[in-house]
Amino acid sequence: MYRTTFAIVDLSALAHNIRLLKGRLAPGVRLLVAVKADAYGHGVRPVVEVLRREGVYQVAVASLEEALQIRAFDKEIPILILGALGVDECVVAAEAKLDVLYTDLCPIPDIPRLPRPLAMHIPIDTGMNRLGFKSIEAALRVIETMAHRADIRFAGVCTHLACADAEDVSHALGQVERLLQAVQTLRDKGCAPPLVHAANSAGLLRGEAWQFDMVRVGIAAYGYSPDPEVLPQPELHPVMHMYTSITRVADVSPGETIGYGATYTAQCPMRVATIAIGYADGFPRILSNRGMVRVRGRDVPIVGRVCMDQAMVDVSHVPEAQVGDFVTVFGIDPPSAWSASAWRSVPPEHRANWLQETFALAANEEGRNVLSLSTVAPLAETIPYEILCQINRRVPKLYVEA
Ligand SMILES: Cc1ncc(COP(=O)(O)O)c(C=O)c1O
């Protein structure tokens, strides 16, 4: 390991969040965790291994490819594919013991006789206008077609809530109400769904009335409230922490400009630090002249444009800042053991280990603050989900069980 830009993925925080979320479930409600997009950028394999240990009922992905990636290392864990699949994909899904959603891409009569039974969930569009049946009569016709197939099992009905994290819950309540009506209609017609699920993280956090038989949680498992203002969740622990370091510190005189396009002009004498992270690492370019990182416990603004591999920050008010200092991109302050001289003294092949061990040891270190991704993401006009998913392969992920 040579470059000081990396992410720490704290698997004990993930386990903590899962236990906490399980504690919020009504008796008998199952927990599904969304691990699509490489487990929201955290790395699907280590995440699924923790979820299995923590007794999560099922995991969900967006595509057949993502599901097969999990099947390659876990032959048993129940997996639900949330995206639309074609007929060929349904055949592969059945072979690999993957549960699917019914969509118009895979009409039941077009599906050939399957080698193993395929569990199919029927999505009901209660107000998201993304996937699912708008008409319960149409859903019923498909469920009846399934009943004639020994190799296709009606596994349940689901919907997706568009506004469960909104201050005004009327939209979400309307969706819940329409789902209840749909379930009642199915029951009346003798097609009672074996499983009903609707709630995402926000739905789960809203309370038991939204949870039905199963909840599908994503962002809360990774440590974030879907909206910290509306549903504050201080007990959740962020799982990912991201760091880089200072590669240069320079004095900048009034009138000098910083970075591509000379978009920032110094108005007074400044100290500017260069950090080893850029948009090619998933650090959004939109943070140019508006984002911040944390140096020696203080928030420092990004000045000038974020480059592909580097960015510049104003450390005028952090006189101790120096080359080699670790910088928090988001997450908890670096452990006190992380110094430029310690990094240099550890051979490159041992650095990952050293970072993991010192991070775990510092778990109870006093006075460490968090630069929350819930603070950083809005500066990039986005949500933590997107930033987490976009941290790319160039950034090593170091797994820790603190
Ligand atoms: C169908 C479905 N269910 C559940 C989730 C999990 O949502 P969240 O991460 O907000 O909990 C997602 C995520 O986008 C989803 O698409």
From TrEMBL:
Pfam families: Ala_racemase_C, Ala_racemase_N. InterPro entries: Ala_racemase, Ala_racemase/Decarboxylase_C, Ala_racemase_C, Ala_racemase_N, Ala_racemase_pyridoxalP-BS, PLP-binding_barrel. It is an enzyme of class 5 (isomerase). Substrate binds at residues 130, 308. It comes from the Bacteria. Keywords: Isomerase, Pyridoxal phosphate. The keyword Transmembrane does not apply. CDD domains: PLPDE_III_AR (cd00430). One of its GO terms (molecular function) is pyridoxal phosphate binding. The active site is at 36 (proton acceptor), 260 (proton acceptor). One of its GO terms (biological process) is D-alanine biosynthetic process. Belongs to the alanine racemase family. HAMAP family: Ala_racemase. Catalyzes the interconversion of L-alanine and D-alanine. May also act on other amino acids. This is Alanine racemase. It comes from Alicyclobacillus hesperidum.
